[in-house]
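Appendix C. Worked example: tRNA (guanine-N(1)-)-methyltransferase
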Amino acid sequence: MRLDVLSIFPEYLDPLRHALLGRAIEKDILSVGVHDLRQWASDVHRSVDDSPYGGGPGMVMKPEVWGPALDDVADGTGPAARAEDLASANPHLLRPQHDDSDTETQAEEDSDLPLLIVPTPAGKPFTQADAQSWAKEHHIVFACGRYEGIDQRVVEDAAQRYRVREVSIGDYVLIGGEVAVLVIAEAIVRLIPGVLGNRRSHEEDSFSDGLLEGPSYTKPRVWRELEVPPVLLSGNHAIVERWRRDQALLRTQAVRPELLAGVELTPQDQSVLDRG
Ligand code: SAM
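Step 2, the predicted output written as structure tokens:
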């Protein structure tokens, strides 16, 4: 997968080359280009923003800067062609892994247009289902807004060269899109086959089956007088799986009850919830 990010603070995107994402870069599963938007600013001050039409506080990001920047990143031309890709921060992490998923092929994406993700609090909420779908993309471009956001015509115009998605990472307002891009990119990249050592670890995560994941435990068996639930030591796989399902159901009911409406419940699931 190819990721390109446009931002006026390229250094904010440095985490994209650390840990599992860095390893994905080393394994050639991922390549990342981070582009300073100001390269496309033409005035002496390299300004990227201007006052809003209709008045009001704050500044709006200029279409004359964003338009050519998105054109170049889509076509691999101009300053986008000269950008160096991010190198992994952790070359030492590349060592043999027990990876059961390297041989899988990525699903073919039927459109040739790259996907443009524009983070904005006014966008559609980003979900795990989006991450699963976008993990099959070949080229994703992220446009990081600042100030009051990007002139809306940029999004309209970009639809000629991209499939455009305006997405929000939650009902709150950040200062800029960079942190949202880190969130979205990490959620996507970990689902690309070969990025996580063991594919089961994301198949059993929260939201994969519509439920929140239940609690997890490791050694020691007793810590500060708190014991690991004995069922986990039983060695009986079926009983452990049932217990995990029950915990996931009960946690979801307690914390995010609205999620249960989208889950197919067996009669046994329903009776666990009724008792909970
Ligand atoms: N005026 C905008 C509004 O009220 O919808 C808020 C702009 S915000 C201060 C600046 C930038 O931060 C946005 O263009 C977007 O890139 C990013 N941003 C802020 N909150 C976000 C969120 N919840 N999800 C995704 N991106 C967000």
